[in-house]
Amino acid sequence: MLTLGTVAPDRILVIKLRYLGDVLLSTPVLAALRAAFPKARLSMLVNLGTEAMVTENPHLDEVLIAERDRSPRRQLRFAAALRRRRFDLVLDLTDGDRSAILSRLTGAAIRVGFNREGRWRGRLYTHVVPVQEQPIPMIRQHLMALEVLGIPVAPSLPVLRVRKSDEAAAGTALAAIAIAPGERFVAVHPGARWWFKSWPAERFAGLVEFIQGKLGLKVVLLGGDQEQGIAQAILEQVETGCRSLVGRLGLLELAALLRQATLFVGNDNGPMHIAAAMGTPVVGLFGPADPRVWGPAGQGHATIYKGIDCRPCFPSGCRRGEENCMRLITLDEVLPLVERMLEQPSTRTEIL
């Protein structure tokens, strides 16, 4: 068990300055820290827009939002405010330069972080997590930060809590599109943060037609305002009619709704991880990212992944055009997988 001298850490900060799914996949670390240090004050620093993933987390005492203003004065003021909190232990799960600098500026005696790129930021930590060159699930990588310090860990899943008001809002939203309580339906989320992680709209339309026309289940399109364009493109191609809640739900309301879904189908994105955290079976469509690392956590999920020679990638533009990794995923391989998941839900995670 880690101690600072003879005293266990009293104030702990976890930093994850990434996106929705990244923050959610870091929550097993919070559970392990709370189990190891039940009396410590546990804080988490995240980017604005991702805080819903941990707002209701039972293991946290507070959620802090990172200052993104470019003003040097505001950045220094924010760093000074972090330092005044006098953290004893900082775990930076971000693997980025900015978070490493913030880690160092806290003045914490123990600072743990990742440095996969072998950059200068490694010198800002007291402990650097050694990550082997093999596909390691992201949850497992996060927990390795605790093992470096001798903190006990156990396999665990992401924790996402919603409020009663979120459940009520989800129920109201479903009722508004004629889905009754307890009725089976499929949630489809066609969006992705980058275009080259998105399955084509016409194939999502074909999927919706198949589920509603052949399988007889209703489909609900989900997404934020940024998905309005692709949702409209799908709706224009669906002859069986389709229910859309795109742009009409907050993140925790979305989570509450996904808990009621029979199946989630979508790209590798935050809502996919939200669905898995809520216990809903997932069919995840993967392109640049390896599902062995970034796949939905838990059992009963399936992923389709081509793993072509140019991945992993996050370039400004994909040069493969019509042969890019997401277009290589055909409708003919997605439809039978979805049908199988709906008829006889898998008890294990599949990678096809």
Question: How many beta-strand elements?
Answer: 13
Q: What integer value in Å does the Rg equal?
A: 21 Å
Helices, by number, come to 12
User: What's the CATH class label of the largest domain?
Assistant: Alpha Beta
What structural class should be given to the helix and strand makeup? Answer: alpha/beta
Distance between the termini: 41 Å
Could you tell me the mean pLDDT? Answer: 91
What is the count of distinct domains? 2
Q: How is the biggest beta sheet arranged?
A: 7 strands, parallel
Report on the structure:
A 7-stranded parallel β-sheet has the order 9-8-7-10-11-12-13, sandwiched between helices. Strands 3-2-1-4-5-6 form a 6-stranded parallel β-sheet, with helices on both faces. β11 (about 280-285), α11 (about 290-295) and β12 form a beta-alpha-beta unit. The model has no long low-confidence stretch (mean pLDDT about 90). The chain has 2 domains: about 10-145, Glycogen Phosphorylase B (Rossmann fold), CATH 3.40.50.2000; about 165-350, Rossmann fold. It starts with 10 loop residues before the first strand and ends with a strand. The protein has helices at about 20-25, 25-35, 70-85, 95-105, 140-145, 165-175, 200-215, 230-235, 250-260, 270-275, 290-295, 330-345, and strands at about 10-15, 40-45, 60-65, 90, 110-115, 125-130, 185-190, 220, 245, 265, 280-285, 300-305, 350. α6 (about 165-175) crosses α9, α7 (about 200-215) crosses α8 and α7 (about 200-215) runs parallel beside α12 (about 330-345). It has about 350 residues and is an alpha/beta fold. It is globular.
